[in-house]
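Discussion board: Methods & Data

I've been asked by a reviewer to show the raw model output for two of the constructs in my manuscript, not just the figures. I'm not sure how much to include, so I'm pasting the format here to get opinions. Each protein appears as its amino acid sequence followed by a line of discrete structure tokens. Is this the kind of thing reviewers expect to see in a supplement, or should I convert it first? Here is construct A:
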Amino acid sequence: MVYLARKNGAVIHHTDMEAMKTMDGIGKAEMEVSDEEFEAAGSLARIIDGKIFIGKTDEEKQRDDAEVRIRQLKAKLAETDYIAAKIAEGSATAKEYAEQIAERQAWRAEINELEELTA
């Protein structure tokens, strides 16, 4: 069990109520969660809107998901960079790679949209 309480505007947590009392002078936890629940929340606890909140907010999760997607799309772009080199060197034509070029443009557009959301 993880015991959470506020002290000096921050959230403190202990796995032992006696330790919370001895170390922080707090005799009663404001919130109790299982060890598993606390770990699943990234061991993140803070005060939001005057209440103890564990884990990330939906907005933070969406931003994290967007950042992961941006990395994935940039990796796809990097994997297909050879196309531009082949076209520039004259060993291939844009017509031969029209489908991949369209995909790359779509990936860039998605990256731009996601970057606006994460800014």
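Construct B, same format:
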Amino acid sequence: MAKDLPEVNDVLIGTVESLINTSVFVKLKDYNYSGVIIFSEVAPGRIRNIRDYVKPGQKIAVKVIRIDKEKKNIDLSLRRVSPKEKKQVLEQESRERELGFLLPFVIQDQEKQKKVIEKIRELGVVDFFEEALKKEAGAVNLLVQSGLSEKESKVLVEKIREKIKVKKVQVKAKINLKCPAMDGIEKIKKVLDVREGNISYLSAPSYSITVENTDYKNANKKMESILQELEKRAKQESCEFEVIKK
């Protein structure tokens, strides 16, 4: 369902309809009206060829800078959209497109599909996809609230997981670990026997630790936890422990 008018400072997705004189006409996604970008709001400085910046049919991220609600005129800007804003709105557009592609595999009823999409938009499409990729239960619960059965919800979450590869970040640390006792090798093995993280031997007395996670903050937390556990075990086994790099 198309919306009426956006708000000033909204960053939206639009499709360039035409270039007339010194104006760019843009059809706004999800809205009933088009907006206009004057050339000075396309890019700073003199524009020799507008087609170097925008072309009819091109999808762009724009910012609403003025609205005349009586005349329904919407003034837009291309140059005032920050790289971060552009990335966010394009990612949302991409996720909505993927959601629209996947939903028909789960439910055929178009009205039900629209209801699901509106519910997901309340949370935020990008946030929903992150929830689906990281923690299945939360995404399933949201879909159940939107009217899907638990079975349908689980199928949709699984299809999202299948389609989108989870990007993982790596956090690394380097440690020195020495045990001068006669049974030092056995003590070192005991200290390094941790469940999380991957520990590799470099050269005596150095070891590398790698932690992978979909979230950089969580990866750092896991690394800190591993290092604290290693230090605790090293003291218990009378070993020398040192963090060289992290």
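Answer (T.O., handling editor elsewhere):
This is acceptable in a supplement if you add a one-line summary per construct. For B, something like: Strands lie at 11-20, 23-28, 34-38, 59-68, 73-77, 169-178, 198-203, 206-213, 240-245.
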